[in-house]
Amino acid sequence: MSELQPIPDGPLRTGFTTGACATACAKAALQALINGNTITEILVTLPIGQEHLFQIFSCDLNTSSCTCSTQKDAGDDPDVTHGAIIGATVSLNDSGSITFLQGRGVGKVTLPGLEIGVGEPAINPVPRQMMQNACKKLLSENQLEHKGVEITVFVENGEVIAKRTLNERLGIIGGLSILGTTGIVTPFSASSYIASITQGIDVAVANGAEELVINSGARSEKNLKLLFPDLPEFAFIHYGNWIGETLEKIALSPAIKKVYLGIMLGKSVKLAEGMMDTHSGKNTWNKEFVWQMAKDAGYPQDLLEQILSFNMAGRLTDLFSFAGSEPFYLALLKACYENCSVLIPSADLVLFLISRDGEYIQYPNEFS
Fold it and tell me: What is the pTM of this model?
């Protein structure tokens, strides 16, 4: 998962999940197979009750199967699957059941801890239910209730796109996950990111992790991995901006005994004040709070005045030497520690304040 992007101004257009797209393709393919006619569009009922008419990008029909595809529209969300070609191949059999197979570009689950069992294609429960409901309705309408349906979901170039996600860390190998709980992609929604945090912690716990390294994203994690080279990939969790939600999830997992939290300066000044969601669109850093913290630490008036002139928290390194013995950083990290440790009372917490150059200050430390 890449570093978080800023939310643009103005109204944002919603889109549709990979699960909704796969459902459209599976339904279109089954309808074409039953009726013997190719399909150019298909109406899908989403889990939230809303209906949407999906355009079918291609429909390849033969006597035994049909393959349909569509192009995913994620709206204005910076989704790595936006524009991807998602499809499904459907065939009928006499099993009386609906089964899912892994097509090209769709991952396979290889680690416990997810909602889908090991060895299964990474098609989440809600998309599976959507496809089952659509297929059962079509079978019933055509007096084919006794028939079974085999659905193979695929994503063109899904193996490549998946490299830009955290799938491999979760044990999803070979491609993307087919996701979605509502069918709708809400641009810059916290729900999808928080869901990935929850999944990551579940996988770590299911695979015996007792220590987690939580961090804001790829840049801070790169530095932290140098400190913990022996920890497995699944022990590293991106919290993005949702520190509070991450710690609350960890608190529900008593197997986790130690948490290392990496944070950069801009987020740390918000966390020190008690902002557990550090998104720039939600919260801005409070210069007066930082001024008071520095004042309480005994810094002179001329330095304090410079804090109020800064337009970004990163400038604080111009005033305070980045070292574990610097009183300002000790005060800053102490406040962060107190706000976070209370959320995970059963686990030890260690903080790492990371500079733009990759240097770090650990807290608690010998000067604490």
Answer: 0.86
